[in-house]
Amino acid sequence: MKDSSSKRSSSQSAISIGTTTIVLIFVLLCLLTFSVLSLVSARANMRLSQKSADRTTAYYEAENASSDILIQVTESVQKCLNTSDENTFFKKIRTELEEKNGICFTDDETLTWTVPLAQNQYLRAEVKLSYQPFSNGNHYRIIAWSTCTDYDWGADQSLPLLENDTMQNILMEE
Description:
By secondary structure, this protein is an alpha+beta fold. Helix 1 (2-80) packs across helix 2. The protein contains 3 helices and 4 strands; from the N terminus they run ααββββα. The radius of gyration is 37 Å and the shape is elongated. Strand 1 (104-105) and strand 2 (110-118) form a beta hairpin. It has a 4-stranded antiparallel β-sheet with strand order 1-2-3-4.
């Protein structure tokens, strides 16, 4: 009797040890899988955060450069205000500012400039000048101050449409 009971207890302990080992291996594999997923997610978040920080830094550098150009424009306007008439005022400003820091005049009173922001992107500013001060007391008014892109997006214009006669053939088959 001792012999058969010792065989049962040894087989039960082997099954018990085997089950415990399998459960332990399964738990370890689950932990390993979750740790790898956490690592991948953390790296993706880090790359996204770095891109966002780089984009924000580039934007504020372009903003500062554009503000420096605006300061140059306001200083030129202040220097040219002592002219006798409006036409002379605009001519003096045009000769002083045109082609400096990328400033272009679209007409006598409006000037624009762009500052590179990122690949295919730039900060565009448009300012309207006036010999008489505007309601805020300045001799300029900012018309546009925005980010723009020169990327040519080529949309797929083709649509897989059925021809009229093909549609009639399909309907006749039914």
